[in-house]
Amino acid sequence: MANEHGNLSINSQNIFPIIKKWMYSDHDIFYRELISNGCDAITKLKKLSLIGEYEAPDDIEYKLDVKVSPKNKTIKIIDNGIGMTKDEVNEYINQIAFSGAEAFLEKYKDKTNEDQIIGHFGLGFYSAFMVADKVTIDTLSFQKDATAVHWECDGGTEYDMKDSDKQNVGTEITLYLNEDSYEFANEYKAREVIEKYCSFMPIPIFLTNEDEEPKTEEIPEEEVTEKDTVIETFIKEAETEEVEKEDGTKETVEKTPAKKMAKIVKRPVPLNDIHPLWTKHPNECSDEDYKEFYRNVFHDYKEPLFWIHLNMDYPFNLKGILYFPKINTEYETIEGTIKLYNNQVFVADNIKEVIPEFLLLLKGVIDCPDLPLNVSRSALQNDGFVKKISEYITKKVGDKLTGMYKTQKESYEKYWDDINPFIKFGCLKDEKFAEKMNDYIIFKNIDGKYLTLKECLEENKEHHENTVFYVTDETEQSQYINMFKEAGIDAVILTHNIDQPFITHLESKNEGVKFARIDADLSDSFKEETSEDELKEISETLTETFKKALGKDNLNVKVEKLKNASISSMITLSEQDRRMQDMMKMYNMYGMDPSMFGANSQTLVLNANNELVKYIAEHKDGENTTLMCEQLYDLAMLSHAPLTPEQMTNFIARSNKIMELLAK
Ligand SMILES: Nc1ncnc2c1ncn2[C@@H]1O[C@H](COP(=O)(O)OP(=O)(O)OP(=O)(O)O)[C@@H](O)[C@H]1O
């Protein structure tokens, strides 16, 4: 071919500075674009060979080579795929690609970075100019008698094209890196980027550093194959060791015999796994396979609890694996990672527009070739097809959980403590998921048994209809728990932050059902039957005495005859007011006055059956009455919420004083 010099068919003077600027955040993406182009080219050639349109050499080994040279500051991406003829270079590179770029820029010129195209799909070949001043292509088409083409462009609007001396079918792209991008020719950086984007591409990818001598390895000579490059052969001497015989004399014996060895050029190891687990049929995968895949992809050495293998062909193509991770501590964030792939090419992590928000607490991979990824994020959000995908994933997760409840209840209960924040968050975020999970939400009660809401209500119907009592802190509320246990009344344990909004949600969904913290109210079951008159006098005396002793005029005091005479005093706190206060704390509204939401909603309950309480009522002006009132109040407060530092200091000082009095 005669040398050809041409103008790229675009109008804008020079699109490259714009591409560079626009793509500023993710420069490394060029690796993905060029490698996936190479993989596509190989896949196409394999197909042609399969249908007899191309006769591949017998020893063909389809692969993609990435060669970096930190010295020359170049990167070569070499595939043995379909290649391009001169006309094709003209069509795909000189015209389509660049006119595509123009259309692309036109479409997105007003968009801000936040509205970037998902994973920048559609950037293709010219993403190379984000990192390179000059790019060359050497390509030989698979077509009979094709002439190899050399193309080059230095980032302006002009290109040069001439014959190339490339001998093998395929394409070699060379990037001459610009000053800001030399790091991409570093072998370790290259490896990191390729592993990020290309770990599961369907063609083996090999990385070499052209500046380094080839690495070598030694293997037994009989294991050498045709593909190996043998540098030398040698005899590895026998290994011997000295052993002691029965008669005490020593003898030298051969441990391993002498062996013929070969020093060969290190066999290349691909950077990627071309058959990732999600592409396999679930029947072919063992538990160990799933766990290993999880370890490799998420670098999480805690085993996942269980997983869901998504495998759908119709009406859309979607494959993937979702893992329920083990949450180790209460304080660990429970944010997961869902990696989105498009035909085994990594797109991005945690794309909220495709994956329902609550599922982002899981870890997993999703490969959906049908996703329209060349549109902006906001367009994706409103895409009906994307909604269907998202619904499908949600449904599958729901199916897995309900199925487990029905057939492996024991496992479900075992995992519940770990998975319940996820399920509850899902119910709050997704109406359909909430409906599906409605009968499968379970509650651990104070005896460690798991019950559904229906079962909770049914079991406690006689004691407190339509009310579920709950514990938020088993240590702090232990006195209440004991009381409940003694009276044969149940309460459930709800200690996670998500539980407060979740029970509010349950109350709104189940009319008439109320949740009340274990210290919210005293159930009638704890009390003896009395008439108001019977307690009137003692009530008045105690109220007055306590108010005076504590210096709290607005203290609410309630005198009850509790069946358990050993309990002297306790605090109850209106459920509604407490929830408001909790909410204030959660949203950090500390500046506001808590009394707005009933700081006065605490009630000091005194047990008229308790000897000490009786004593106080009978000795309201006694020498130590104030001391006793203060101590009883603090004791009640202690099992309700932690004391403030000041209160604690007083409490300890007073306790010491009481001991001194006892010692007298
Ligand atoms: N390594 C290659 N071997 C053969 N043909 C190639 C190669 N790289 C690019 N091409 C041809 O050039 C065309 C344009 O490539 P480009 O990467 O710009 O866009 P694309 O691959 O079609 O789309 P996208 O990358 O946006 O998914 C390709 O469709 C392909 O026909």
From TrEMBL:
<dbReference type="Pfam" id="PF13589">
    <property type="entry name" value="HATPase_c_3"/>
</dbReference>
<keyword id="KW-0067">ATP-binding</keyword>
<dbReference type="InterPro" id="IPR001404">
    <property type="entry name" value="Hsp90_fam"/>
</dbReference>
<dbReference type="InterPro" id="IPR020575">
    <property type="entry name" value="Hsp90_N"/>
</dbReference>
<dbReference type="InterPro" id="IPR036890">
    <property type="entry name" value="HATPase_C_sf"/>
</dbReference>
<dbReference type="Pfam" id="PF00183">
    <property type="entry name" value="HSP90"/>
</dbReference>
<keyword id="KW-0547">Nucleotide-binding</keyword>
<keyword id="KW-0143">Chaperone</keyword>
<dbReference type="InterPro" id="IPR037196">
    <property type="entry name" value="HSP90_C"/>
</dbReference>
<protein>
    <submittedName>
        <fullName>Molecular chaperone HtpG</fullName>
    </submittedName>
</protein>
<comment type="similarity">
    <text>Belongs to the heat shock protein 90 family.</text>
</comment>
<dbReference type="InterPro" id="IPR020568">
    <property type="entry name" value="Ribosomal_Su5_D2-typ_SF"/>
</dbReference>
